[in-house]
Amino acid sequence: MNKKSFIFFYGLNSIGQNFYYLAIPMIVYAITKSASYMGIMTILQTLPVIMFGAIIGTIVDNFNPRHTLELTLVFQVGLNVV
Question: pTM higher than 0.85 for the full model?
Fold first, then answer.
């Protein structure tokens, strides 16, 4: 993957991820009309990062950072498309 396409996919992923973190709680609020459920959804979104971030981080540190980032970006873009 060349540098320009890498930057493109990284930017595309960042935009998609930020829309996701904004849209899901708003959809929950639109359906339930409850700020409490919206807050619970936001907590549930960040819970996996809090629980597994340190563990996955130590595993990922054993691999080449560029290849790891490329692989995760391609995977995330694929999930965002679905």
Answer: no
Asked whether 38 and 25 are in contact (CB, 8 A), the reply is yes
Query: Which region holds residue 8: left if phi is over 0, alpha if psi is between -120 and 50, else beta?
Result: alpha
Judge whether 24 and 45 are in contact, CB under 8 Å.
Answer: yes
CA angle 81, 7, 12 (to 5 degrees): 25
Greater confidence (76 vs 60) lies with: 60
pLDDT given at position 76 = 78
Residues 6 or more apart from 26 whose CB is under 8 A from it? Answer: 38
